Each structure stands twice: as structure tokens, then as C-alpha cells.
Amino acid sequence: MSRTLQNSDAARLAEVITSHEAPILEDWIKEMSGTTRRVDLIKDTELRTQCTQFLRLLRQGTESANLDMDSAAWKPIREFLGDISRSRARQGFTPTETATFVFSVKKPLFAILRERLGTDANALASELWTATELIDALGLYTAEVYLTTRTDIIRRQQEEMLELSTPVVKLWNGILALPIIGTLDSERTQVVMEVLLEAIVKTNSKVAIIDITGVPTVDTLVAQHLLKTVTAARLMGADCIISGVRPQIAQTIVHLGINLLDVTTKATLSDAFALALQRTGISLDSNTAKAKGA
Amino acid sequence: MEKIPILRMGDFLLVTIQVDMHDRLAMTLQEDLTNRISETGARGVLIDISSLEIVDSFIGRMLGNIAAMSRVLDAQTVVVGMQPAVAITLVELGMSLQGVRTALNVDAGIEALRESVDGPRAM
């Protein structure tokens, strides 16, 4: 289809929308109340405002006689649809419902076009095609915005989880514990390492216990990450003890041929804590524990 | 020429690295330090790198070399105050500085040196 033809189609579309705005609006709202209207989620007046706004912006877009969706003429309507998509996502609409809101304008619009161009089949076909292309692009845009919004939320949550999942606990003067829960990947190990080393400097701790009770599996990569953390702590002058090695994990480590000989490992956190106390030269008995702990 | 001062504290030598190390400076330090150890008969060397913020593999290797050389001259070496970023860099470079003793700060380093030097005598 040639460019000029498309442009004249767009101009006619703009003219049709201008002259028949009220009937299109009425039919559109009626159409929506049949299928996708969610009375529980959106008020009549609000829907009517949104529809009016959409028609007005659509007319502005088509008046520019430029059918490139990325151009400046279409910016207002894209922003408007972006807002609608975001607010509807919050209200609990599915992306299909939001897109259908845009798609459903086709029926009343096409009805008017058929009335106007009924005898001229060629013109009608090309006009319908232009309108379909336009409205499809706008509808898909709402779905795209919906997805982007969702992806942003997921990424933010991931970041939050990463921060939440690496608490460094001070067990005693000079003894830190770092319980790790969940799978260790490279990114997380980096965070774990940094957090632990910073805490070692800040609290002047001689011993750090890394508890891996909550780590579901240990493969060569995870073991390598652990060894790196232990080595880095040693370079700073702190001892690392790895605790919470479950029997299955001990078997896996040996089967994989991972060398953990240079690292002190303990079965439970309490064993590791006892060793840490011993290394820092603190002794506990039931009489002095209360006084010292206070 | 720039030089890193080597201070004597009783039986020990104290080296505080407060400038960015470049290769020539590292070589000079290595030479000066070995000379001072044999001159003074020091039993321990304490290298404080708490102000060192940038390392490369050469500096890492130099630290290891100094420790090995001191051992040959019968002096213990303790590296103290390594920054987290430096430790991570060295580990990522694959340098674990096996055979170099480390401590959190100068206090802990002196204590570790005393233990290893005086320990056998007390026994």
C-alpha cells in the first residue's frame, strides 16, 4: 500500500472520528458493557472519561496523517495508554482486558466507516486496514506497558531479596555468623563476600562462621564461591568456619572431588561456635556465662 | 626517590604502606627490608596495608615474596589491615597468598608475632 493512500486514509479516519464522536462513544461503551466491562473494578464515569480522552487523542494522532507510532504525534496517546495500563494493572485487570478495552473500539468505528463508504469497496477495505493496524498497535502497546511494569516489579523484588538474604549476625565479641539460605550464585556470592568482609572490618572479628544449613545443593561452583569467601577473609586476618554441612552435601562434595581440606568444616552451628570461642580464647561455663554474656 | 619507611620496634620491623604501590617502589621495599632484617636480626616483620586501596598481581606476588624471603632470614611476616576490596581483588586474581600470615589490625598482628616468636621460648 502506498504511503499517500495511507495518509489519505488517516485523514478520512480523523474526519470520521470528529464528525461521529458521540455515536462512536455511545456504541463503544455499550459494546464494552457486554463483554469486558468489569463493574466491580471501574466506575461508569471513569470509564466514560477514559473513552472520551482516548477518542480525542486518537483523532489528534490521525490528524497528523503520520502513521508511524513512534513519532511525536502519537506520543500523547501512548502516554495516556501507558497510564491506563499501569493503573488498570494495579486495579486488577488482566492484560487481555486492558487490550480489549482498546480493541473494542473497532466495532463502532467500523460500523460508521461502512455506513460512509458502503458502496466503495476498495476505499472501505483500505480504510479498514489502516484503522485495524492503528488500533492493534495501540492495543499491543498497552500489553507491552503491562509487561514492563511487571518486569520492573520483579526486578525490584529480586534486589530487595538479595539484600534481605545476607544478614551478618554478631554471636560474640569477635565472632560473626553468616547464615546463608537459598542457592548461591555468582551475584549473590559477591554480595555475601562484600557484606561479610565489611562486617569483619567493622566489628574487628577474628572468626566468621558461614552456616550453609539453608543451602539446598552444593556443586563445584558453589564450593568455589565458598572457598573464595574463606580465602578473602583469611587474607584480611580472620578465620572462617563452614558449618551446617548436611550428610548428603558431604557426600556430594567428596564425589565431586572438591578439596575443602584447607577449610575448617563443622556439622552444626553450635560445634562451629564452640570452636570459635576456643580460638578467640573465650571459655564458658554455666556459672560465668550469664555474667559474661551481659 | 620515594621510599617506604621501615620502623624498628624491639625485635620487630614495622612497614606501613601509605602510598599507592608501583612496581619499582615494591622492588625497593623488598631490597630495603631484606637488608634491614639481616642488619638488625629482627624476628618479625609487620606489614600494614590498611591504606592500600589498589593492588595488582605483581603487588600480591611481592607480598608473598617478602614473606618467603623473611622466612629464609628467620623472621616471621604478618600482613595486617587488608581492605575488603583488596582481599576480593586478590582472590579474584587467584592469589590466596598461601604461607603469608594475616591479621585484622596492627594490635592483632603484633600479638600473633609475639606468639610465634616467644611461644617456643616459653615452652
Give a description of the structure:
The complex is a heterodimer of chains A (294) and B (123). With 294 residues, chain A is α/β, with parallel strands linked by helices. Chain A has two domains: 3-160, Orthogonal Bundle (Globin-like); 169-293, STAS domain (Transcription Regulator spoIIAA). Chain A has helices spanning 3-19, 21-34, 44-63, 75-91, 95-103, 106-117, 121-164, 186-203, 220-236, 247-256, 269-279, 286-293, and strands at residues 169-172, 175-181, 207-214, 239-243, 264-265. In chain A, strand 2 (175-181), helix 8 (186-203) and strand 3 (207-214) form a beta-alpha-beta unit. In chain A, helix 5 packs antiparallel against helix 7 and helix 6 (106-117) runs antiparallel to helix 7 (121-164). The radius of gyration of chain A is 33 Å and the shape is rod-shaped. The mean pLDDT of chain A is 83. Chain B has 123 residues and is an alpha/beta fold. Chain B has one domain: Transcription Regulator spoIIAA (2-Layer Sandwich). Chain B is built from four helices and five strands. Chain B has helices at residues 23-40, 57-72, 84-92, 106-122; strands at 6-9, 12-16, 44-48, 76-80, 101-103. In chain B, strands 1-2-3-4-5 form a five-stranded mixed sheet, with helices on both faces. In chain B, strand 2 (12-16), helix 1 (23-40) and strand 3 (44-48) form a beta-alpha-beta unit. Chain B is globular and about 35 Å long. The termini of chain B are far apart. The model of chain B has no long low-confidence stretch (mean pLDDT 88). The chains are: A alpha/beta (294), B alpha/beta (123). The A-B interface holds A 193-194, 197-198, 200-201, 204-206, 228, 231-238 and B 79-84, 86-88, 90-92, 96-97, 102-105, 108-109.
